[in-house]
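In keeping with the milestone schedule agreed at the kick-off meeting, the structural modelling team has produced records for the first pair of proteins. Each record is given below as a sequence line and a structure-token line. The laboratory manager (R.T.) confirmed that both were archived under the project's standard naming scheme.
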Amino acid sequence: MNTAVHRRSALVVGGTGIAGRALCRELVAKGWPTTSLSRRETAAQDGVTMLRADLTDPQSVQAALADTAPTHVFVTAWSRRPTEAENITVNAAMVRNVLDTAGHAGTVRHVALVTGLKHYLGPFEAYGTGTTRDTPFHEDEPRLDAPNFYYAQEDELWAAAERHGFSWSVHRSHTIIGYAVGNAMNMGQTLAAQAALCRAEGRPFAFPGNEVQWNGVTDMTDAGLLARQMVWAATTEGLPSQAYNAANGDVFRWRWMWPRIAQLLGVEPEGYAGRPRPLEEQMAGKEDLWRRLAEREGLVEADLTRVASWWHTDSDLNRPVECFTDMSRSRGAGFAHYVDTLTSFAALFETLRNQKVIPA
């Protein structure tokens, strides 16, 4: 093994989430000593040292990281709060607490931060309303004139880089396709749960979104591709510290994708029908049905709220604006990875069946 690679060690903050799990797998496969830091206890991951801490509490973070000296830190965690003001306070503190603790060791060379397209669309409280950027989104566009916890996280990253002397990258992903039970934003898994419930009741698989999303162009981000981009940015010599959009490289319309997802999940598709049909309405009161389904099929999670995030998928599929990104910056710098989005969905659904998260 190359000695320079051998000297690398990774701290993945939020290693139990969609992005973090995929990143841990990528790092372990490349031979990195890898530590996951997360808020909750979870099943062990092969080759990963698992640590727990309350990321909002600096003393808890300091205690958890006392015996670590990472060379590379990857921040993939966030915490949803009722208002954007609270999102800013809490999520900025999480980044600050981790980077102040890790940075004082003097070993950190690079920090990669995952944010997302709310950078261009605005916060949850004003998602896709008011002023937004034209598609495709470009990394050098100025921030919107609205409070946004992604901006606060970036500010903490830049301040820590100045204090501790490391390089950095920001990775603005679109909706991530990947495996993680209990994740707060998980469209692929949510659609799989919707399909399982529709199949159990003999109902059509009804598109929950609006006409703009049904007919407009969009893209998504495979968790594995995002992981590869983060490692690439963290280890490629000569790259400037800057932000990168992170998407699969293809674009699609939901009117094309929806029937193909339905076929993968074994349900009858029903497209946009004149008005949005949010999942929070379609799936209201289905917790007991899921519990019975889980018992009958031997599923690993009987709590529907840990499998599906109706609110997040509703939010994505009811944006009033078209949403996709430009990937020229990372491609021009040498990141050439590409993932077909339908193939990414198919791989996720197969994993969910194999892991007994959804019925076979």
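The second protein of the pair:
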Amino acid sequence: MLTPLPAEEWDDEAREALASTVPPERRRPDMVGNALSTLVRHPVLAGAFLPFNTYLQKESTLPERLRELVILRTAFHHDCAYEWGHHSAMALQVGLTEADIEATRSGAEANEFDQAVLDAVDELHTGSRVCPHTWERLGQQLDDRQRMDLMFTFGGYSTLAFALNTFGVQLEDGAGTDEFYASMES
């Protein structure tokens, strides 16, 4: 298990590792949350991984709503409470309903296209590939770049789930609430 890097051990290298993700005024242990505070224990690795994760979260061609479907189904498969706690709240902010979020647990979505997204995540999880039929179903609404981003979102958040689960990163008190995110932004 790894704990967040203690405040007295933060240095310029730890703060710089967060440069692609966090504005300078928030690069401190009390402002970045447990996941980032733990990842900066290895600043070189964090500095390499976080730009990719930031791309998946903010610059991906995958629509936000679908991105959150992918992340939640991935978090479910890996039993990652940390990802689930943060992304279930984010999912509501980008238009998923409580029923959509529940569907990421059950794997059964009423919307046919959303079901194709969940099926793609399930196939990646169990067989390390999306089958041709599901790839075609995704292609009804997503172009090749979006389908690639879907696959890399699954992969990136799987990697993060492996790390968060192995390190024992704890969900912050109040995570998943509007008040929590407002305090992180101030």
